[in-house]
């Protein structure tokens, strides 16, 4: 597996230059576009990696499946479903899903920003910093990495330039869907997006979703298996935003991207995959990362279809 990953990284490295690093959060624009790394954790706990797999970057939207998982663990399926729908949006991650009709919970999806911002309100805790701490703690447990922390510079950068997310939170409030102080909720969301990870962390997290809540090789059950089913289904239909249909045909795995350049892909029962390459396509997904996944998927027959 190591040799295969090395080969695919080298073959796909030229494509890193076709992507563009996220510029709307100034701190993210500092990333090195030429980097490409991958880590795979198999269901029996074997780890393989290649390229810049140890480079750290901010998790960004890849926190959304973990946010959804914690909301499910805290409230159960029915409550979460009633507040944030599951229909694929076919829209960009920062789309404001509102025209002249009323904004209803069924118009939201946990994988795009409006749904994810609302999910922060479902996390249990006596304050927003405490909710964030619980989310960070769950992320550490899934990754098996107790040292994960928030990158304060990226957090501040996103907070300063986060007008669009601010607009979404206030719209949710005005439509009666968000009942807490929007600024506090956004603070939790911005910090959650700013957790620093590497490909190994993403691969370990993905692996827990692949093996239905267990952590290989010990088999410790970290969360109920039915929540892996729920999160994977939502990832499959909306994890790559308006690129989800294309990704389903090309790769055929539940996956989540982040504008930091990460992709987490779940190969049910087989493996978790973490990828990093900060050059993005026009939909905000890692360009070389998707190509690498596509080729790995073909070589290992990973598509679930
Ligand atoms: O909400 C934002 O703008 C970011 N913090 C997260 C967006 C993101 O990662 C979209 N993914 N491709």
Overall description:
The protein is an alpha+beta fold. The chain has two domains: 159 residues, Beta-lactamase; 133 residues, DD-peptidase/beta-lactamase superfamily (Beta-lactamase, 3-Layer(aba) Sandwich). 44% of the residues lie in helices and 11% in strands. The chain has a five-stranded antiparallel β-sheet. A two-stranded antiparallel ribbon has the order 3-4. The radius of gyration is 18 Å and the shape is globular. It binds 6-diazenyl-5-OXO-L-norleucine (DON).
Short description:
By secondary structure, the protein is an alpha+beta fold.
Q: What is the fourth-level CATH superfamily of the largest domain?
A: DD-peptidase/beta-lactamase superfamily
State the domain count.
2
Distance between the termini: 23 Å
Major sheet strand order: 2-1-9-8-7
Spell out the key features of this protein.
305 residues; alpha+beta; Beta-lactamase; 2 domains; 12 helices; binds 6-diazenyl-5-OXO-L-norleucine
Describe the protein's topology:
Elements: H1 2-12, E1 37-42, E2 47-51, E3 57-58, H2 64-75, H3 77-83, H4 113-120, H5 128-143, H6 152-160, H7 163-174, H8 182-193, E4 196-197, H9 199-210, E5 214-215, E6 220-221, H10 225-238, H11 244-250, E7 255-257, E8 262-267, E9 271-276, H12 287-300
Antiparallel strand pairs: 1-2, 1-9, 3-4, 5-6, 7-8, 8-9
This protein binds 6-diazenyl-5-OXO-L-norleucine.
């Amino acid at each position: 597996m190591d040799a295969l990953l090395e080969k695919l990284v080298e073959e796909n490295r030229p494509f890193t230059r076709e992507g563009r690093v996220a510029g709307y959060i100034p701190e993210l624009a500092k990333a090195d576009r030429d980097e490409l790394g991958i880590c795979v954790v198999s269901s029996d706990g074997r780890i393989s990696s290649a390229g810049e797999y140890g480079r750290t970057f901010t998790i960004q939207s890849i926190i959304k499946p973990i946010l959804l998982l914690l909301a499910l663990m805290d409230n159960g399926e029915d409550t979460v479903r009633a507040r944030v729908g599951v229909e694929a949006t076919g829209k960009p991650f920062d789309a404001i899903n509102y025209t002249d009709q009323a904004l209803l919970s069924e118009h939201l999806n946990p994988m795009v920003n409006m749904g994810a911002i609302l999910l922060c309100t479902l996390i249990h805790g006596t304050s927003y910093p405490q909710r964030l701490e619980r989310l960070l703690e769950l992320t550490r447990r899934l990754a098996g990495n107790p040292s994960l922390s928030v990158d304060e510079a990226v957090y501040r950068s996103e907070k300063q330039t986060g007008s669009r997310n601010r607009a979404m939170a206030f719209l949710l409030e005005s439509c009666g869907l968000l009942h807490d102080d929007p600024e506090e909720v956004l603070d939790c969301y911005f910090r959650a997006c700013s957790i620093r990870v590497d490909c190994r962390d993403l691969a370990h997290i993905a692996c827990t979703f692949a093996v239905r809540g267990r952590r290989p090789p010990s088999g410790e059950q970290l969360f109920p298996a039915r929540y892996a089913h729920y999160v994977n289904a939502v990832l499959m239909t909306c994890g790559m935003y308006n690129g989800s249909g294309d990704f389903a045909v090309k790769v055929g795995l539940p996956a989540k991207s982040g504008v930091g350049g990460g992709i987490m892909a779940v190969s049910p029962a087989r493996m978790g995959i973490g990828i990093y390459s900060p050059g993005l396509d026009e939909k905000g997904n890692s360009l070389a990362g998707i190509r690498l996944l596509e080729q790995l998927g073909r070589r290992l027959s990973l598509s679930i279809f």
